[in-house]
């Protein structure tokens, strides 16, 4: 008896298994029912595993490409890892006799072990583990900053790619307007150009050794040769992996005499990167005689600095702000916000407008390594009658700033003063609009739920007292989203509860 897997046709492919008296390669007869129709067919018993040949691996800095052939269509599996236990896999279910899998997420300059496995349609599996010893490879070793290239020793590890039809290419040599010996030039001989697109690509650079990185280089260009009707310019880009497109860092237009350009690479720390200088020119009429873009003295540094902390405070719960600096863009709301693990840099904070208040001015400051920085904004308002209410608010609701209106005035006689309604964000002309407590609900487990009406942006907290004189907070400040809010508290010795509000 032989149990084998076979494929039956016609009627569509069907893979099944059963006991047959046959030898490998014999033809067997089988039948099955499909959609109410009995299908009969002959099938050849397949128990021969594919044969693997031509294993090839091309390592990269943080990945590798593995290829191999099989004697018949089969799927693809690579098992790999940093030890003999392997532990990681890449797989493709596509059946083919030519196989290609990319291993990603590897560490640079590291030895890895691997084996390849293929399985044909009949389930016959073969693996090649180098005779039980496993195959090995080492990922490439990138440049480790600090790295400096003055370009006087050739173009080792640099590369250039040109678009089809490009009339110039990045060339290393002495430009007609020399800066300091050799330089990369996108049109070094200055020939007239109608069209070009050319990419200068740096060696691979390891930015995994710190939390702050900087690129500097000297450059010269004049992209104004063709006037307004032509296109000439440059872009600095960065490649962080082999899958996604390059990321644009900076664009260059107009003209620039020889000068140093300094670029923050901190957002790309943690990657092995390539730097790309992309030059393009499109002349729509006459060819342009241009020196192109010149690059020299390229330097990359990586350092480890202690992060710092920034605290942003203001006097309004409604206040929103934006904190920005060196690749950081954070927003927040409320009275007190703390940001930690920020890189040392110059920072600025700007506050947004709040109705009836005057917005504080933007502020700037420098966060040093391991230090802290505080920004404090104070919203103010005009108050000609000295009642603690914004004149802007009084004009909107009463159309006048009345000298007779005091903190105790209650225009709508709802028990909540005009001052209290200004703070709570309610309508001083509506007797049903005021901060009010809803009947508390007693819950199981000796708990109680306190509910109240709320206004957008305000902050509330529940306070309690046993003697009516000394009030203590029972909750933190709460900023609800809707028109009502609640807090669940344990029953306590406090005999009286109230809700406080911050504008």
In percent, how helical is the residue content?
under 10%
Number of strands: 37
Distance between the termini: 86 Å
Low-confidence stretches: 1-14
Shape, principal axes of CA atoms? extended
Q: What is Rg? A: 36 Å
Mean pLDDT: 89
Please state the structural category. mainly beta
**CATH topology descriptor of the largest domain:** Jelly Rolls
Q: Helical element count?
A: 2
Architecture of the largest domain in CATH?
A: Sandwich
Strand content: over 45%
Domain count: the total is 6
Largest sheet: 6 strands, antiparallel
Reading off the top of the CATH hierarchy, the class of the largest domain is best stated as Mainly Beta
Offer a concise description of the structure.
The chain has 503 residues and is mainly beta. Helices cover 3% and strands 51% of the residues.
List the helices and strands and how they pair.
Blueprint: E1 2-8, E2 14-20, E3 27-34, E4 37-44, E5 52-59, E6 63-81, E7 88-104, E8 111-119, E9 125-128, E10 135-138, E11 147-149, E12 159-162, E13 171-173, E14 183-185, E15 192-193, E16 195-201, E17 205-206, E18 212-222, E19 231-239, E20 247-252, E21 255-264, E22 272-282, E23 288-289, E24 293-303, E25 308-314, E26 320-325, E27 328-333, E28 336-342, E29 345-351, E30 363-367, E31 372-377, H1 391-398, H2 418-424, E32 437-443, E33 447-453, E34 459-465, E35 472-473, E36 484-490, E37 496-502
Parallel strand pairs: 25-31
Antiparallel strand pairs: 1-2, 3-4, 5-6, 6-7, 6-8, 8-9, 8-10, 11-24, 12-16, 13-14, 14-24, 15-23, 16-22, 17-22, 18-21, 18-24, 19-20, 19-22, 25-28, 26-27, 26-29, 29-30, 32-33, 33-36, 34-35, 34-37
């Amino acid at each position: 008896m032989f149990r084998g897997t076979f494929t039956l046709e016609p009627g569509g492919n069907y893979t099944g298994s059963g006991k047959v008296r046959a030898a490998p390669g014999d033809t067997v007869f089988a039948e099955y029912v499909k959609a109410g129709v009995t299908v009969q067919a002959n099938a050849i018993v397949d128990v021969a595993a594919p044969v693997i040949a031509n294993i090839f691996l091309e390592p990269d800095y943080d990945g590798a490409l593995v290829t191999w052939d099989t004697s018949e269509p089969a799927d693809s599996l690579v098992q790999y890892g940093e030890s003999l236990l392997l532990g990681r896999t890449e797989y493709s279910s596509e059946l083919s006799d030519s196989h290609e899998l990319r291993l990603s997420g590897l560490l640079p300059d590291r030895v890895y072990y691997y084996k390849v496995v293929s399985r044909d349609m009949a389930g016959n599996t073969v693996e090649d583990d180098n005779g039980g010893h496993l195959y090995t490879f080492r990922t490439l070793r990138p440049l480790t900053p600090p790295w400096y290239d003055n370009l006087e020793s050739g173009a080792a590890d640099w590369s250039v790619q040109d678009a089809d039809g490009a009339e110039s290419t990045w060339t290393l040599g002495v430009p007609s307007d020399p800066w300091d010996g050799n330089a990369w030039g996108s049109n070094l001989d200055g020939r007239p150009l109608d069209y070009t697109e050319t990419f200068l690509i740096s060696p691979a650079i390891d930015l995994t050794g710190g939390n702050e990185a900087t690129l500097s280089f000297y450059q010269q260009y004049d992209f104004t040769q063709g006037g307004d009707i032509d296109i000439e310019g440059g872009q600095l880009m960065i490649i962080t992996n082999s899958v996604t497109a390059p990321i644009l860092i900076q664009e260059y237009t107009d003209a620039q005499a020889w000068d140093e350009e300094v670029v923050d690479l901190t957002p790309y720390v943690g990657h092995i990167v390539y730097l790309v200088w992309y030059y393009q020119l499109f002349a729509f009429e006459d060819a342009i005689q241009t020196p192109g873009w010149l690059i020299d003295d390229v330097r990359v540094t990586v350092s480890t600095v202690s992060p710092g902390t920034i605290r942003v405070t203001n006097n309004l719960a409604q206040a929103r702000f934006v904190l920005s600096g060196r690749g950081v863009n954070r927003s927040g709301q409320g009275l007190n916000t703390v940001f930690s693990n920020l890189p040392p840099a110059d920072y600025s904070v700007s506050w947004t407008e709040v109705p009836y208040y005057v917005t504080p001015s933007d502020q700037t400051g420098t966060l040093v390594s391991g230090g802290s920085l505080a920004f404090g904004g104070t919203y103010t308002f005009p108050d000609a009658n000295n009642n603690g209410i914004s004149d802007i608010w009084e004009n909107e609701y009463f159309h006048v700033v009345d000298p007779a209106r005091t903190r105790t005035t209650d225009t709508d006689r709802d028990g909540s003063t005009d001052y209290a309604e200004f703070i709570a964000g309610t309508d001083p002309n509506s007797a049903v609009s005021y901060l009010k407590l809803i009947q508390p609900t007693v819950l199981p487990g000796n708990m109680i739920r306190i509910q109240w009406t709320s206004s957008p942006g305000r902050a509330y907290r529940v306070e309690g007292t046993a003697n009516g004189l000394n009030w203590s907070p029972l909750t933190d400040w709460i900023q609800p989203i809707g028109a009502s809010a609640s807090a669940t508290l344990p029953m306590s010795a406090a005999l009286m509860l109230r809700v406080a509000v911050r504008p």
